[in-house]
Specification:
single chain; 230 residues; mainly beta; Jelly Rolls; 2 domains; 2 helices; 5% helix
């Protein structure tokens, strides 16, 4: 029978436990038990120090956009809505964007009014979205675009003209092909043109209808998942 013993008197100092005079990887005091060893086996327990040093302080974050009753009246036009208003969309952002390859928008006000601030730096991992077609046009092709706008080149505490150019980048485009009216399509992607997100930059979501005769109306809910700092 194996005997587990403590070599010295139990007090506030940590002392190793022994089994048949062999030191175990457990230290005990009057009110704590400590496992000081780093794990080498899949099912081995770990201590708080190891977890803190190896977790990298990575946190899971998400950003959400709801577009309700979006009237995409013009084809090949980019639409977005204000980040505080889920209803309807505006084509203001289209002035300054012509394609998904664009890297600069000519009027910063058209972007930041329709964008959300990125709260933490990180890496985008997935975009989950769906589009509901409620209009009369059965054959409609819809694109959901995920973009960032970088303000790193703009000085803080400085009066910038509202027409200042701002760097933009399309991270992803997700296509929805409707051939029947009043339908919902769910989609997601983990494929991106770029993945880096920077704290204090902006992110915005665009909708664009490329075919169909009736742009009214569409509902869209887009969720962006990313790994970031705390």
């Amino acid at each position: 029978m194996t005997n587990i013993t403590l070599e010295n008197t139990l007090d506030h100092n940590f002392k190793p436990l022994k089994a048949d005079n062999k030191v175990l990887p457990l230290n005990v005091s009057e009110n704590k038990i400590v496992y000081p060893k780093n794990p080498t086996d899949t099912y081995e327990v770990v201590n708080k120090k190891y977890v803190d040093e190896n977790s990298g302080s990575v946190m899971k974050h998400y950003m959400d956009w709801h577009y309700n009753s979006a009237n995409l009246s013009s084809t090949n036009t980019f639409y977005a809505n204000t980040h505080i208003d889920d209803s309807g969309v505006s084509s203001n952002i289209n002035t300054g964007i012509s394609d998904y390859n664009d890297v600069e928008h000519s009027d910063i006000w058209r972007v930041i009014r329709l964008a959300k601030r990125i709260p933490y730096s990180g890496t985008i991992t997935k975009v989950i979205t769906h589009v509901e077609s409620t209009g009369a046009s059965a054959d409609s092709d819809i694109e959901v675009g995920v973009w960032i706008a970088s303000i790193s080149g703009l000085a803080l505490n400085t009066q910038h003209p509202t027409t200042t150019d701002v760097a933009i980048d399309n991270l992803a485009k997700i296509d929805f092909d409707f051939d029947t009216a009043t339908r919902i399509i769910f989609n997601e992607t983990t494929s991106f043109n770029a993945t880096t997100l920077t704290e204090s930059d902006f992110m915005f979501i665009t909708l664009r209808r490329t075919s169909g005769t009736d742009g009214s109306s569409f509902n869209c809910h887009t969720t962006v998942l990313y790994d970031g700092s705390t």
